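Hi there. Long-time user, first ticket. I'm pasting a complex I've been working with (about 230 residues overall). I'd like to know whether the download I got is complete or cut off, because the file seemed smaller than I expected. Thanks.
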Amino acid sequence: DAGVIQSPRHEVTEMGQEVTLRCKPISGHDYLFWYRQTMMRGLELLIYFNNNVPIDDSGMPEDRFSAKMPNASFSTLKIQPSEPRDSAVYFCASSRATSSEQETQYFGPGTRLLVL
Amino acid sequence: QQQVKQSPQSLIVQKGGIPIINCAYENTAFDYFPWYQQFPGKGPALLIAIRPDVSEKKEGRFTISFNKSAKQFSLHIMDSQPGDSATYFCAASSREGSARQLTFGSGTQLTVLP
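Hi, the file is complete. Here it is re-exported in full:
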């Protein structure tokens, strides 16, 4: 398996622009998680999906952030409008909902976002 | 209640040394404690995990020690190698809700000198 795939790997944009981050989870995984990593706040869970349905979005910082999962193999995280404080590395992770494997989350390589 | 406190923030050891990273938690509902390893430019990857019914788990050169009464757990790396240089995150989760949401520690940047 190719693992979790994220695109783009790097994104540089100007304040006020819309940013869309993409994720393809591992085939067969039921859960998909979006995280943000910064030096100040570490790894923060933003939102997670189960079978394409958003379950908990309490970590989404504000209304400028939105996430969708239109099918089992694709998810997007959108920031509109972007601000410099959104600069971070955004990770997507997926896991399988079986009794023993559910705990292991497999992370993608991340998207490094810089908002100027 | 959900916080996991990790220390130290950074650690430098010589090759062959035994770095120890410590974590503490408050939420007694946590029942799964994984450690993730992250290399620069990569996503975190599961290294080793433990449940509170055992006090120690060993996989290769990596050992987790768990103290349930103190609500603390630690990672030991035996015979550390330069290739172990990475950032290590402890985490904790419970079966609340429909999925295991991981609460991560702040990370420890480990450097193993040759």
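A couple of notes from our side: Chain B is about 0% helix and 50% strand. The mean pLDDT of chain B is 92.
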